[in-house]
Amino acid sequence: MRIELRIVRPGHPQIEGVEVLKGMVVYDSVHGNTKQVAEVMAEQIRSEGHQVELKALREGSVGAVLGDFMFIGSPTRAGRMTKEAKEFVESLDVGYWKDRPIVVFDTIGPLSKDKEKRNKTLKMAEGYSKNAASKLQELCRERGLKCSNAMHFAVTGMWGPLAPDALDMAREYARRFLATL
């Protein structure tokens, strides 16, 4: 099989007629749940033929944050995003990111192990502002950034694990987002 690589715009390669974009997945994780979600999202982006950088906020300076789109995640801690996630959004170059899509997500729990009850609670979280993703979304919008709806992923215990369907939901969320680009 021969793959032809052409540059259609500076910095944007194209493979077999599909433009290759660069995504950033930046996250904070306290007990590893948000990290798992971020890794699955990065895998999905890569599997669809795009470039992706995965950056953990607790591993020191994330360096340059450049791409065509970005996912930002944080665990919900006392109804808020973590300090690291807040400082990251506050430090973003608004001039660079104001017209690029940003997707926010969180892990939230402990939620019921019963799928129906858990999904009902996650649906309610969409309209509730006391969670990390809603706070991230609010902060992004206050800064003039283009931010999509927030997505929540369930944790079934106080510190984990993720709900059995959480990683599949993360893959699907990333796939649906990429389809909009």
What does this molecule look like?
The protein is globular, with a radius of gyration of 16 Å. The strands form 2 sheets. It has a 5-stranded parallel sheet with strand order 5-4-6-7-8, with helices on both faces. A 3-stranded antiparallel sheet has the order 1-2-3, with no helix packed on it. The N terminus is likely disordered. With 181 residues, the chain is of the alpha/beta class. 35% of the residues lie in helices and 23% in strands. It has 6 helices and 8 strands, in the order ββββαββααβααβα.
Give the SSE map.
Blueprint: E1 5-9, E2 12-15, E3 18-19, E4 22-27, H1 33-47, E5 51-56, E6 69-75, H2 83-91, H3 94-97, E7 102-108, H4 115-125, H5 132-142, E8 151-154, H6 166-179
Parallel strand pairs: 4-5, 4-6, 6-7, 7-8
Antiparallel strand pairs: 1-2, 2-3
